Amino acid sequence: MTNKDLVEDIPVKELIRSAAEARKKAYAPYSGYMVGAAVLTNELRIYTGCNIENASYTPSICAERTAISKAVSEGRRGFKAIAIVGSPKGELISQYSFPCGVCRQVMREFADPESFIVIVARGEQDYKLFRLSELLPESFGPDNLR
Ligand code: THU
Question: Any idea which residues carry the catalytic annotation?
Answer without folding.
Answer: 64
